[in-house]
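Table S5 (text form). Sequence records supplied for joint modeling of the two-component complex.
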Amino acid sequence: MDVPENLKFTKSHEWVKSLEGGIVEIGLTDFAQSELGDIVFVNLPKAGDVLKAGTSFADVESVKAVSDIYSPLNGTVKEANQQVLDHPESINSAPYEAWLIRAQGDIPAGGLLSPAEYKALLG
Amino acid sequence: MEKKTPLYPWHESHGGRIVPFASYLLPVQYESGVIAEHNAVREKAGLFDVSHMGEFAIAGKAALEALQKILTNDFTNMAIGRVRYSLMCNEQGCIIDDLVVCKMDEGRYMLVVNAANRDKDAAWIKTKLKEIKLDGASFEDVSDKFAQIALQGPLAPAILSSLSNTIPEKYYTLIERGSVAGIDCIVSRTGYTGETGFELYCKPDDAIALWEKIMQAGKNSGLIPCGLGARDTLRLEASMPLYGHEMDETITPFEAGLASAVKMNKDFFIGKEGLTGKEKPGRIRTGLKIIDRGIARENCPVSVNGKNVGKTTSGTFCPHLKAAMAMALLDTSIAAPGNIVDVDVRGRIIKAETCALPFSLI
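The corresponding structure-token record, covering 485 residues in total, follows.
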């Protein structure tokens, strides 16, 4: 499983990338996409929607099942990725490029795992 | 504790993602994924381990009479080597299982039933044989004597022909004493994908050798192994009902849209009385094409102008139609093609359009 060194991770298999100006990108890890299988639909929030840490902000549908995606932060959505809405399969092919949303807010202390910690979680 | 099919070691060593299903451990998919497996069956060929299916032998001078009484279809005009779909109903006319009946010889039949219903079906048939005092019909659950492999897809006939000169020519026929790659098996021209294909019943000890011979023969034709995931998307795309979804012990064959497998003109069959007068049901299995973004799966409430008109029974993204489709049990008044309905998908309302079954007609 690919676990990039420049990202942080959640226990629920989202990745978080820090951009400039306090904005973060949130996506699904390689492990998550592999477990889900072929992803065919993604439901994302809109810019301005409120995010609450630990609660679902989106769901992705694979051929077999639907899965919730959880927010690592308290804050608001800045942008949803139209590219992923149009091509959900890009999460399977390039999970670390196919960000779901860009958001701004506060990440609770201890809410994120380092790459080493995430690798340990995957076992 | 789940059982393993004879092919389990092969699945495990070839990247099969194993899940429990109907008391068995089976691959849901291999490394190529559900969509690639689905498309292989639509365009080339796919190989499925369906050893979990149940097989029963019913034989004796009263075997035909037993089938006539316990099952809904008519088997009196069936030739040796024919296969016929039927339902088994309870006294109320609701569905205990759907199955196929294979006529092996005069007075000798094989029934193929759903894995999850195997024990329930066996108990039901044994009880009913006693109740209707059919001593001349023997019953045996022979499921463990067979492994079952399904080869499905447009290239299936060519692949099988390269390994056998005993393949059935016509849909829903079988050859009992078939031989594929030198391995004895029953070869039936049946399947559950909407494609042409075959189901092979062999001894459990021969299963891996037979599977590997077929994989080898189909390698250059694009044959790939397929799991339960593709089996479900294929059957749904082909609008085939599945027990526990479109059928159960609260649903009649008429509601399930399976009237053709029920012969109300038979003198007697279990469920006939319960079904009498219910030929025009208030709800019926209906196709839904999802209009909005999203996928309706089973048990999503369906409404029109806020009034409940039924619920979905199964749904998925159909890879070949490239659309999200569902089947639903809907009020007959709304079931005609072209009506727009609201489907409640986990609290989110999405629009869908009723459509005819099978979906391949649209």
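Note: Chain B has three domains: 3-51+146-237, 54-142, 282-355.
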